[in-house]
Amino acid sequence: MLRFLTAGESHGPALTAIVEGMVAGLPVTPDYINSMLAKRQGGYGRGGRMKIEKDEVQFLSGVRGGLTTGSPITMQILNQDWTNWQEIMSAGPAARLDQRVVTRPRPGHADLAGAIKYNHQDIRNVLERSSARETAARVAVGTLARRLLEELGIKLVGFVRRIGPVAAAVDDSQPPEVLAHLAGQSQVLCPDNQAEAAMVKAIDQARESGDSLGGVFEIRAYGLPIGLGSHVQWDRKLDSRLAGAMMSVQAIKGVEIGLGFAAAAIPGSQVHDEILYDPDKGYYRPTNRAGGIEGGISNGEPVVVRAAMKPIPTLYQPLRSVDIKTKEPFLASVERSDVCAVPAACVVGEAVVAWELAVALLEKFGGDSLKELKERVNQWQQWARQV
Ligand SMILES: Cc1cc2nc3c(=O)[nH]c(=O)nc-3n(C[C@H](O)[C@H](O)[C@H](O)COP(=O)(O)O)c2cc1C
Ligand SMILES: C=C(O[C@@H]1CC(C(=O)O)=C[C@@H](OP(=O)(O)O)[C@H]1O)C(=O)O
């Protein structure tokens, strides 16, 4: 079983992830993971913290000579900002920290509910872990999974469809390479040039007015075998697992698969994908409105998942809140924050989708080495084409 945990605080010494159950013999380098970590740090609209960090992964176990060994893989990403927070983050006697206690919960964060739930007088004990800094570790984990998918000929593409009021016009028939190329060139990971300019402008305007913006991004996975996930039990359905993974990303408030919410407004004849057969490519669909999943099972068409991100909650324009020590009202404002992190969240989205697909693949095909897994997948692909 493929599984992982992350640990680490936003301003602590490091983020750590342990991945268990990855096949042996998978080629992976820190450089490959670092390229995705750098992509996550980028995107127009990020704040001061990203000028301090330069995320790089270190393998502490489970990888030798550029290949996974089958043992648990430990990955670590150091927080450069830690040196500025060392004293505040110290695990020493609480008395020393008295002056630095955070008693002012920020609306839109885990601060208040988390402090009450865990009986903390210092909200820092919540905010350090609820921070989206954790998504750096998840990108490292998901990128490992993405390496596995690539070995099996499965490609992932993520791009931004909306920033605040600005929607992109994306040609859905474009091949993944073209979409990836166009998105990769864009400051906001948007393949539509015209929309990109307007998106950048909208982010500038939000920054000037002390506000923030959310948006929508889309992740597609091409080349998946038929049969990942299952209709037989609620927690085995691939769509539910993808939606859950996506919702676990900080600030994600909605998920769609395929047509998603749009399907509710149109007749069935415009929603369902007809089934065709070709002796060379097997069963296929002339349309992909289902987003590659029917009955919780991958149907061989590209998997298409979209997520909506809320605007960053920490605003330069203050919001009302209440001090948990004095119970006095105050205006929550900020020293530094992202104005828009939709492109960054899109990179996280690619990682979490890659992870869920890799888990579903290993569940179906098993195998302890990459060689064994590849053989099983190839055999299955041949069979599923002709059955
Ligand atoms: C990549 C990324 C960067 C983020 N940056 C910030 C930020 O700079 N300031 C902030 O207040 N929230 C930021 N957030 C959002 C908060 O982490 C998130 O809203 C908060 O943890 C509450 O979680 P929830 O919105 O899922 O309830 C960011 C989220 C992501 C995914
Ligand atoms: C550190 C990252 O994002 C952070 C996520 C975040 C939050 O509240 O979620 C708040 C900000 O951190 P800080 O308060 O230190 O400025 C972001 O920079 C990152 O993406 O690596």
Automatic annotation (TrEMBL):
Gene3D superfamilies documented for this protein: Chorismate synthase AroC (3.60.150.10)
Catalysed reaction, written as an equation: 5-O-(1-carboxyvinyl)-3-phosphoshikimate = chorismate + phosphate
GO molecular function: chorismate synthase activity; FMN binding
Transmembrane portions of the chain: none
Residues engaged in binding FMN: 129-131, 250-251, 295, 310-314, 336
Cited SUPFAM superfamilies: Chorismate synthase, AroC
GO cellular component assignments: cytosol
Keywords: Amino-acid biosynthesis, Aromatic amino acid biosynthesis, FAD, Flavoprotein, FMN, Lyase, NADP
Keyword field contains Lyase: yes
Family of the protein in this entry: Belongs to the chorismate synthase family.
Listed name of the protein: Chorismate synthase
Gene name for this UniProt entry: aroC
